[in-house]
Amino acid sequence: MRSTIGAYIALTKPRIIELLLVTTLPTMILAQGGFPDFWLVVKTLVGGTLAAASANVFNCYIDRDIDELMNRTKRRPLVTGEISPRAALVFATALGVVALLWFALLVNAPSAWLTFAAIAIYVVGYTMILKRRTPQNIVWGGIAGCMPVFIGWSAVTGSLSWSAVALFLVIFFWTPPHYWPLSIKFKKDYANAGVPMLPVVADNRKVAREMIGYTVAMIASSLALWWLAPMTWVYGVVAIGLGAWFLALCVMMLRRANDPTKGKLGAMKVFHASITYLTLLFVAVAVDVFLPF
After folding, report:
1. What is the pTM of this model?
2. Three-state DSSP class for 1?
3. What sections of the protein cross the membrane (predicted)?
């Protein structure tokens, strides 16, 4: 029983869900201008967890054929046979239905519709249409990962705002420089599975250049929030400092791609740094609301 429960949990990709929730709570705090109603926060985070879990299980179900071909994913429960495809499909559907009803009945209608859009974009847009067809898969498919800020904002206010759009764009532009370094590490896996991630179809120099472009746009979006919200100078200093640090890592990666004698590419260092960047930026968003100036 413990093994079976663990297998079902593994299908939901808990580590990805953690990162999505990191962006939701600070967004809700900013939308409220303080800490929102405790139970609203709980309901939103539980609903978001259910929705993300549903999308991830659908992803595992659809991608089980290519997961079998990649070392990184060949131990997933659908590949090893711990969970049957039929059971996974039922599980994914049940999670999705419960998530949508949860938001509709316990939060509000706008957040329920946005949750439906997030699941559809990830399952249909990214997994079924984009992933196996274009190197831009993670760019546009990454919109699903931006939706938690819209869901969190709408849960508090029942609507959206330009501040929510700025937060959305931060995550949108952050996604490629976050995911492409991981794709570099597992380039052979993706190539074997026929998935045209950008690092599979382009050299490291092109990947690094594009990462720099997206990082610049990400920094600009984070600074736009400083003006739109508005935030205090503390947030501004943190956003500039974090952005400069992450941009420097991407530039260093480009230099090493151009001249391998300068050392290892350091793709995974950039990957881990991207998680630190997003986490600290959204912590700054939450903290800034409570500053007395």
Report:
1. 0.94
2. coil
3. 16-35, 41-62, 83-105, 111-130, 137-156, 162-180, 211-229, 235-254, 266-291
